[in-house]
């Protein structure tokens, strides 16, 4: 009797779990499905009924969106800016996290407070001073300068996450490498980095997503038509009095697609990296 009750309870729990996951899946995929559906409609049909199946498939929405948003230029700008930011953040954050994890820092509480403060502080607090300072230095419309701003914003999060990976590595590995004659740089590059590579990949994916979608700093510091990013050119597609929603939906799908494909290809490593970063230090 007890066995039957436990079996019924386990089945109920399983059904509730799958039901909750199914609802979460529908809520997550519904906006994407709606985006794909409306990207192939004429604007008038979207306004009449955004949930209806397309009466005619407007594939030219994608070609017009690509040309009008100048994606051949702006997406390349976004890719260069995102790649530069990822390289800067991963290189500086991994070095900083290694030192904080392997050296006793007397002012660790102050460092933690600083990292948390810079992570949670809104960028609007620093936007005007940064703009005037960069304007004085002639760094407006300079993608590398914007990458430096992104690095300063995203590095605290990356440092705190990567520090947990380094703390999880046994010190015996480091001591064994020292006995073999390796210096600190060789230990870091040949022993530590290969072990924490899932964490670095996780940081790269998160920072890349933030950099690709960032709008406020990009539209403030990259004002030239040849320097703007894809998200800014997408914003400019919307007119003041009228908008071609079919073209806008197609442009949104073009911007989202590279990120979705990249995440699908690397999702297993990303999940492993997030699970490894949950270790408390």
Automatic annotation (TrEMBL):
Subcellular location as annotated: Cell inner membrane; Cell membrane
Pfam family, any one: BPD_transp_1
Domain ABC transmembrane type-1 residue range list: 75-266
Alphabetical keyword list: Cell inner membrane, Cell membrane, Membrane, Transmembrane, Transmembrane helix, Transport
UniProt-listed SUPFAM superfamilies: MetI-like
CDD domains: TM_PBP2
GO terms for cellular component: plasma membrane
Segments traversing the membrane: 12-37, 79-101, 113-132, 144-166, 187-212, 248-266
Keyword RNA-binding listed: no
Topology within the bilayer: Multi-pass membrane protein
Record has Cell membrane as a keyword: yes
BP GO terms, sorted: transmembrane transport
Role according to the record: Part of the ABC transporter complex UgpBAEC involved in sn-glycerol-3-phosphate (G3P) import. Probably responsible for the translocation of the substrate across the membrane.
Subunit: The complex is composed of two ATP-binding proteins (UgpC), two transmembrane proteins (UgpA and UgpE) and a solute-binding protein (UgpB).
Family: Belongs to the binding-protein-dependent transport system permease family.
Name of the protein described by the UniProt record: sn-glycerol-3-phosphate transport system permease protein UgpE
Organism annotation: Kaistia nematophila
Gene name for this UniProt entry: ugpE
